[in-house]
């Protein structure tokens, strides 16, 4: 890739016997919005800290525009960080916080002033320059932290769960704002979060992580629609996951029946897992449904009804329905072949991509 | 307003009286023409003029202040660096070991510090006097500075250091532009405590002084053992005023620093309400 | 902060070696020498062999206990009620202010107040009891020592009460406890660490207040501190003085260990 700006090659990080990162490989392109998504302790913040230079990798190479930067100290790297707790200097006011990096580099006073005010304008904090940090709300502090980072014109901006301290409404607003800011600046953002909704809403590309490994990389739609394994399917969105068997190409069996599906390229009778998203399940009559379930509970969520039900084999089924059902009643559920997502056990991302190519080629 | 009287307040008044009566008693008799601390016979400035013409006493006051200023300054520098060292130690075992060593002089009785320092100086063949007193005062002031600075370091958010480095600060710039301003109140409090420790010390100085060098405490002890001298009363009045100014000054400086922001915020809130 | 250069703290390490470790080692070393400089165990034999020293030690501990108890009795209510006043920080400052007055001056004041024809005796004469010998008594020593130590006891207790979450008190009342039950079952146990810190701050110095025993106690009370001062500065028997010093250090370590251990447990429980 010509415009690759950051690359990690076989990066490991160990603390004593604990493995924090295990063989991390990825590339970031210029001007895109990337998200590292995973539960806490999965290693996503470690990647950020290695990239920023706060900690070093045990092995592997970190490259910036093709140059190895493993040993470059943090204060020499052209990346800046927005910290989870903002890390605004309490003894400096808003202006001096934003001006901090520029003043260290002995940028002329007039230029500092102009650039700081411009950065504050970008984060919509015009007129707040002489406020004390303690006087700002959480959302405002968040913006100052962003302004302080972008005023240095970094080529990559690292954001470590920057929205986690905000309330739900403000968080949604900031998601939109961050995305707009990234487009306007045209620089690479690497965003860390454990909130899958946030990741799906903002990113060009998502890296799903668990236990120090990147499990799947792709754009939000791909990751949502084609989760590679149980963990990803469960972590991204809500899922019904059942055990099944691949009868042959485009035919899978689960809960004692056979169903059409859109997957192929597996061994006959290979054991697999099936993912059905709750919003893909449609409530219908028992006679018309592909599956028959009994409704257990029903919760109204405003736009949908969240229905929990079970089938005769006692598998739980979560359904997002537009119309309400009656508790205790038997209903049918239907779905299309492309709603059935088949996952093989232990398949890596490369294998998955390779398999996809073989039969998608056939179709065309 | 509800009734102000209560047994609680009476008790508090009693305790305050207990604490202050002896001090005011001293000051009161410093104006006694009679020359005793028991019968007040008339007002006079005589004991103050005597005090100011007592060149030996003036010299002792100057020496005491010099020791206090120098020892607290040096103890603050060494103690702050020590706190940074303790803070940077990662292994809890080592950290606790250093902290325990640090606190030994904090909890040791004065006589032990005095006696052991006396043995130490004699062992080295160090001449007792200004030098030994100064070194001793630095020594027993260092731990208090460490204990004042360390909590500030510990409460400092580690990501502040990361943030400064991230924004391009060198190690020295991180120290001078982020850490030092942050811990400044602790350093200042440490200096102040060290200063008062030094002014107040008697026992340690009593052990390690020699060759005619004296601080106020030692001199007061010597004179008090000989009986009442109203010159000491006059001196105590002056010292009380001095301490009062010092404490009130420190208090208001602290108040000013912490309220500067509060006031500004109140002003802003007031404008927002409009 | 892994980047801190240890070279800067050279002076601090030097201080630990020269002024913390070396004097401790030297005082132990010195305790094995007699007055004429011979290596001997005689000092320890004298200390543990003769009743005089042991009696003096017990005496000293007894007085320190009395002083600590008296100080605690006066200080706890003061700290408690001080917390309920308006401007409590200002009042606290006024409690601490006397500690900035030189200890010797305060002792000196009591020489005047308690003397044969001082103010207290004037008062006693006035109410018809007649003048009493007040100065140079054991009681006067305890009283003046307590007077000097009170602020050091109030401060930690005040802080402990100040940090006490008022919800606990409200919860206790809500659950039907009387004021006294709230105090004895909730407030006091939760502020016990403040009391311990205060006891630590008062008890150890009380063992060594030699200037007070001289100025106020009139040499009737001999504490460990007095004995050490006597041996070092009067009789010049440094070996014996050091031996008593070592005993005092051991006593101190025991007290620190006992209070420290409990505090650790308390922290774990929180």
UniProtKB/TrEMBL annotation, chain A:
GO molecular function, one term: ABC-type putrescine transporter activity
EC number: 7.6.2.11
A GO CC annotation given for this chain: ATP-binding cassette (ABC) transporter complex
SMART domains: AAA
Catalysed reaction, written as an equation: ATP + H2O + polyamine-[polyamine-binding protein]Side 1 = ADP + phosphate + polyamineSide 2 + [polyamine-binding protein]Side 1
Keywords: ATP-binding, Cell membrane, Membrane, Nucleotide-binding, Translocase, Transport
GO biological process, one term: quaternary ammonium group transport
Record's subunit section: The complex is composed of two ATP-binding proteins (PotA), two transmembrane proteins (PotB and PotC) and a solute-binding protein (PotD).
Similarity comment text for this entry: Belongs to the ABC transporter superfamily. Spermidine/putrescine importer (TC 3.A.1.11.1) family.
Biological function: Part of the ABC transporter complex PotABCD involved in spermidine/putrescine import. Responsible for energy coupling to the transport system.
Official protein name in the record: Spermidine/putrescine import ATP-binding protein PotA
UniProtKB/TrEMBL annotation, chain B:
Location within or outside the cell: Cell membrane
Gene Ontology biological-process entries: transmembrane transport
One Pfam family of this chain: BPD_transp_1
Keyword annotations from UniProtKB, A to Z: Cell membrane, Membrane, Transmembrane, Transmembrane helix, Transport
Top-level taxon of the source organism: Bacteria
Keyword Nucleotide-binding: no
GO cellular component: plasma membrane
Membrane-spanning parts: 12-31, 60-84, 104-124, 130-150, 179-199, 232-253
Matching InterPro entries: Bact_Polyamine_Transport (IPR051789), MetI-like (IPR000515), MetI-like_sf (IPR035906)
Main location: membrane
CDD domains: TM_PBP2
Membrane topology of this protein: Multi-pass membrane protein
PANTHER family membership: PUTRESCINE TRANSPORT SYSTEM PERMEASE PROTEIN POTI
Family, as annotated: Belongs to the binding-protein-dependent transport system permease family. CysTW subfamily.
Name this protein carries in UniProt: Spermidine/putrescine ABC transporter permease
Protein's organism: Loigolactobacillus backii
Taxonomic lineage of the native organism: Bacteria, Bacillati, Bacillota, Bacilli, Lactobacillales
From TrEMBL, chain C:
Protein name in UniProt: Spermidine/putrescine ABC transporter permease
This protein's UniProt keywords: Cell membrane, Membrane, Transmembrane, Transmembrane helix, Transport
Organism, as annotated: Loigolactobacillus backii
Cross-referenced CDD domains: TM_PBP2
Stored SUPFAM superfamilies: MetI-like
GO biological process: transmembrane transport
Database matches in Pfam families: BPD_transp_1
Chain segments annotated as transmembrane: 12-32, 61-83, 90-114, 134-158, 237-258
InterPro entries documented for this protein: MetI-like (IPR000515), MetI-like_sf (IPR035906)
Subcellular location(s) per record: Cell membrane
GO cellular component: a single term: plasma membrane
UniProt family annotation: Belongs to the binding-protein-dependent transport system permease family. CysTW subfamily.
PANTHER family in alphabetical order: INNER MEMBRANE ABC TRANSPORTER PERMEASE PROTEIN YDCU-RELATED (PTHR42929:SF1), INNER MEMBRANE ABC TRANSPORTER PERMEASE PROTEIN YDCU-RELATED-RELATED (PTHR42929)
Membrane topology: Multi-pass membrane protein
Tagged with keyword Transferase: no
